[in-house]
Amino acid sequence: PPTISVENVEQAEQFANDVGWPVVLKISSPKLLHKSDSGGVIVHIGNPDELKTAWTKLSGQIESLDQETKKSIRIQIQKEIIGGIEVIVGVKKDPNFGPVMLFGAGGKYAEILADRNLRLLPMGSQEARQLVTGSKIYTLLNGFRGDPPYNLDRLYETITRLGKLAEGTSDIAEIEINPLIITHNGVWAVDCKVVLTQSN
Predict the structure, then answer these.
(1) What is the torsion angle, in degrees rounded to the nearest 10, for the CA atoms of residue 124, residue 126, residue 131 and residue 136?
(2) What is the mean pLDDT of residues 85-103?
(3) What is the arithmetic mean of pLDDT over 89-111?
(4) Residue 77: what pLDDT?
(5) What is the pTM of this model?
(6) Is residue 75 a contact partner of residue 93, using CB atoms and an 8 Å limit?
(7) pLDDT digits (tens, 9 = 90+) for 126-161
């Protein structure tokens, strides 16, 4: 989704006015792989007053971090995606088996479904489809109780392209999009983590 780094709350408000509310505020730093664990993500910000409150709260979270982490901190604002299903897509390079693709339920569904599905790369569109259709979250993605199917073709394409990216470079040890939000019309990479291989 539309995302920028901002220096102050005025810039953040201008962005929200341009792309539309609601928005999300995030702490971004190479030293924080899991922003949510440090209170670094605030969602459902629907107006300027809520934005100012969220900015103050996030600034407080930044002050509680160690000095080394604070040096690399940026505040990002992002258009919030409403009405989708959150999933996790990632690749990790196993020392024995090589690159392995992960797909499963994300967000609130992750704890409920315990949905982790693995497949070795390389992966084409057919293998991506099999990975998704074999998951627990597929029941919701395919349309449940009258809900129309979500954009599965774009999901398969995203999984395939992520696999090619991971295979195409030796610099990436692990890459994860979490969450990837699937809507009826599109697929949105809301946050991404990339771990590089250790250089010798």
Answers:
(1) 150
(2) 95
(3) 91
(4) 98
(5) 0.90
(6) no
(7) 999 999 999 999 999 999 888 899 999 999 999 999
User: How many Cβ atoms are within 10 Å of 3's Cβ, its own excluded?
Assistant: 17
Residues in the chain: 200
**3-class secondary-structure state, position 61:** helix
Which backbone phi and psi does 127 adopt, to 5 degrees?
Answer: -65, -35
User: Rounded to 5 degrees, what are φ and ψ at 101?
Assistant: -90, 135
Which residue in the block uniquely carries the two structure tokens 């009826």? 184
The confidence score (pLDDT) of residue 36 equals 59
Contact 198, 100 (CB under 8 A): no
Which residue's structure tokens are 């199917």? 149
Q: What are the CA-CA distances from residue 136 to residues 92, 105, 118, 157 (Å)?
A: 21, 8, 13, 19
* Preceding omega of 149 cis (within 30 degrees of 0): no
Which residue is associated with the tokens 């459902």? 44
The C-alpha atoms of residue 9 and residue 27 are separated, in whole angstroms, by: 14
Distance, CA of 103 to CA of 67 (rounded, Å): 35
Could you tell me where the DSSP H helices lie in the chain? 9-19, 48-63, 67-70, 108-113, 125-133, 138-141, 152-167
What are 59's strand-pairing partners?
Answer: none
Closest CA to 42 of 9, 70, 67, 87: 9
Supply the pLDDT for residue 200: 44
Q: Characterize 113-148 residue by residue with b for buried, 16 or more Cβ atoms within 10 angstroms of its Cβ, and e for exposed.
A: bebebebebebeeebbbebbeebebbebbeeeeeee
